[in-house]
Predict the structure.
Amino acid sequence: MTPGDISFAYPDRVMDNIYDGIKKLDAVINGLAEPSTLMYAPLIILKPSRINVDPFTMRLKTDRVESEIYVLGDMNGICRGNVDAIISGIIAADSFTKNRNKRNVDEEIR
């Protein structure tokens, strides 16, 4: 068994205890200690109430009329899971593309 990203989430002593426990469980559940066994660390997502985001563009709402800051992804605190994070990325990409195309048209008119 090779520790991966989970080793960044837990201290070395905890990883040693997990590994020892898996070796003991392997006697009961044959094949548990195989290198292909995956272990996941818990993910804690906090939903802050301070971030004010337009849900239709995923732009950060500020005092300015047009904010150029997009808030998206799983770690921004407004998404509750991977599906929400993917959708926020699609919305932000669509909004960004429309905004960029609008600016290009405005520049051509000038």
